[in-house]
Amino acid sequence: MPVDIGSWRDLRSAEETVLAAVREHRYGAQLFLVDPPRFLSEAGFRVGGAFAADLRALPGVRTNPARAYDLIAAGRHPLCRMSIRITTLGLPHGLGGLT
User: What is the pLDDT of residues 58-93, one digit of tens each?
Assistant: First the structure.
């Protein structure tokens, strides 16, 4: 059953499932870092439109070229030569009203 992610609280609640999806894909960490909502959607999560926009507006995401995701997925981006491992989403308490 797909997990709905429409807020920071939802993302934090789904952290283990998200991290498992990242680990399952050869370049999952790179894809997640470049375009989190697209990666989550392609991994079977349902990401709310407003929250997807929030994720895309993050400083490290909004500067990525649109083509980067497809190049990574095809194994042709320079990031594919890097070993990247995500062990936590690092969502601090208080982010987006989290406690």
Answer: 998 999 998 999 999 999 999 999 999 999 998 877
The residue to which tokens 């308490």 are assigned: 93
Residues whose CB is less than 8 angstroms from the CB of residue 4 and which lie 6 or more positions away in sequence, other chains included: 10, 45, 46, 48
Residue 49 tokens, joined: 């439109």
Task: Quote the CA–CA distance of 11 and 91 in Å, as a whole number.
Answer: 9
Phi, psi dihedral angles at 47 (to 5 degrees)? -105, 125
Residues in the chain: 99
Cβ-based neighbour number of residue 28 at 10 Å: 21
- Check if the beta carbon of residue 9 is closer than 8 Å to that of residue 55: no
- For the chain, how long is the longest CA-to-CA vector? 40
